[in-house]
Specification:
single chain, alpha/beta, 8-stranded parallel β-sheet, 9 helices, 8 strands, 33% helix, globular, binds D-xylitol-5-phosphate, binds zinc ion
């Protein structure tokens, strides 16, 4: 039986706009898996506060990555980075306890995988002291997550089909970001909006302008091994798009 834990102190949680203070969340999916620890240290040195951990099970998506034992090792390497786990798995409920124990701070699941137990799953994530995120694939409408928007801390809008890095953004998915932004304002809700997929120097401004507060980028950060330069360039584009003098 899972035990109740106190909410992990979160110092990296973005303020909900306006104005937007965007956060870059590098996805290690495009990192060198043989040296994940160094990759985390590199993004931390480059000023990042978040890291995005893509968990794939070869069922919900046709790809397979890593699980709680790897996350636990990474937690030892970086005490400061905010661990943002993106579960692209069936049966997310069965994974909550292990990811919480491994040091994850936000756990995002897919509404296409949570079915009838979505509300209970969000409660379970909160009971373990984590922030709870809900995600939707490109073809899933915002209406599918609307019943849960009062409960969640974060909404992850997929801007590519989940499963692989290096795909091109589907620009129409940004309409969901706009819808979620308007809905949040009209209902005075607090969830943070994150986008994931195809975010790079050419597209990051579009995503920030649409209203995203957390920008996931995998290949645009790790693709050419110039990690620090890529993070600096993406951060500068985010700053310009958000109209913030300095991030
Ligand atoms: C895709 C993952 C993404 C992926 C993004 O299913 O959820 O986080 O790493 O990769 P890029 O930024 O290369 O599109
Ligand atoms: Zn992801």
């Amino acid at each position: 039986m899972s035990k109740v834990v106190t909410q992990r102190k979160v110092s990296c949680w973005p303020k909900v706009g306006p104005p937007i203070h965007p956060i870059l969340a590098p996805s290690v999916l495009s990192a060198d898996f043989s040296r994940l620890g160094s990759e985390l240290r590199a993004i931390e040195r480059a000023g990042c506060r978040w890291v995005h951990l893509d968990i794939m099970d070869n069922h919900f998506v046709p790809n397979l990555t890593f699980g709680p034992p790897v996350v636990k090792c990474l937690r030892k390497v970086s005490k400061r980075l905010f661990f943002d786990a993106h579960l692209m798995t069936e049966n997310p409920t069965g994974l909550v306890e292990a990811f919480a124990a491994a040091g994850t701070q936000n756990l995002t699941f897919h509404v296409e995988a949570s079915g009838d137990s979505t509300s209970e799953l969000i409660e379970l994530i909160h009971k373990h002291g984590l922030r709870a995120g809900i995600s939707l694939k490109p073809k899933t409408p915002v209406a599918a997550i609307e019943p849960y928007l009062r409960q969640v801390d974060l909404v992850l809008v997929m801007t590519v089909e989940p499963g692989f890095g290096g795909q091109s953004i589907i620009p129409s998915c940004l309409n969901k970001v706009r819808t979620l932004r308007r809905y949040r304002e009209s209902k005075r809700l607090k969830y943070v909006i994150e986008v994931d997929g195809g975010i790079n120097l050419e597209t990051i401004e579009l995503a920030v302008t649409a209203g995203a507060e957390v920008l996931v980028a995998g290949s645009a950060v790790f693709g050419d091994r110039r990690v620090a330069e890529n993070i600096a360039a993406l951060t500068e584009r985010m700053r310009i798009a958000s109209g913030i003098p300095s991030l």
